[in-house]
Specification:
3 helices; two-stranded antiparallel sheet; alpha+beta
Amino acid sequence: MSVRYYETDLMGVVHHSNYLRYFETGRTEMMIQLGMPIEEVEKLGVMLPVAASECRYKLPAKMGDVLRIVSTVNKVPAAKLIIDTEIYNQKDELLCTGSVTLGFIDAVTRRPVRCPQPLVEVFERNINI
């Protein structure tokens, strides 16, 4: 994805808050590649609120950069899903690393639940993707 003008500050550098949006883009695409887009997860009766996020900035992304977002899951989820993300520019320089922790809640009661079995099976087949 290309860095857009509105994502940058007066120095032409991506504002730090946009990296969390990039993380969301990465996890959305990862779920699609797994064959379980978020809409399908929600059909299982669960929602995945963000419980925590962490960013470690290495180099700035700049106006005109083309970003490659790599999101991975390294552990089959039970009560929470941790998605690690790395962001690279077109020179393959690592710009940012981080993670997002998602919980599972019942879509009706909004109470915590375990990861639905169909989603567990998706990650069991594709761990470290």
